[in-house]
Design goal:
By secondary structure, this protein is α+β, with helices and mostly antiparallel strands. It has a domain of 98 residues: Rossmann fold (3-Layer(aba) Sandwich). It is built from four helices and six strands. Strands 3-4-6-5 form a four-stranded mixed β-sheet. It is globular, with a radius of gyration of 17 Å. The mean pLDDT is 87.
């Protein structure tokens, strides 16, 4: 485990599927644009719930595929076709093909909220932003 200090915040590098903290260690746990990369989503979300004290919150911010409307068509054109082409000129072109593929194969907001519930969070809600491209799902640890 690597620990870095930035002002009053501490950033630690750890395995999201096996967090090195005791149960009920934190008031909250958050992940931004990361759970889509978990090898086992249910296990990773379960770990977040495990390390949060009762009454604390687990919040997940993630890219989600838009389900309908004009934005869904634009999103498909932009994200699935143009982003990989633009990425071809970058030093890491595989990142620009991986990103659209990983978002396309990920859960929608309702399914992500259900996964957070299965992990043990309650009072789960999901706020969909940017026409369905971004979801913020949050739940309280009982």
């Amino acid at each position: 485990m690597e620990i870095r200090y930035y002002g009053h915040a501490t950033f630690e590098l750890a395995d999201g599927l096996s967090l090195p903290y005791p149960r009920d260690s934190f008031d909250a746990a958050t992940v931004a644009f990361g759970v889509r990369n978990y090898q086992d989503l249910d296990r990773g979300l379960g770990e977040l719930v495990r390390v949060v004290r009762p009454g604390g919150r687990v919040v997940v911010l993630e890219l989600t595929p838009p389900e309908r409307g004009l934005l869904a068509h634009f999103y498909s054109l932009w994200f699935d076709r143009l982003v990989p082409v633009l990425g071809a000129v970058s030093p890491l072109p595989e990142a620009y093909t991986y990103l659209p593929r990983s978002v396309r194969s990920f859960l929608g907001p309702r399914e992500l909220a259900a996964a957070l519930w299965r992990a043990g969070a309650r009072e789960v809600s999901c706020l969909v932003l940017a026409g369905g491209i971004v979801a913020i799902c949050a739940g309280t640890v009982p």
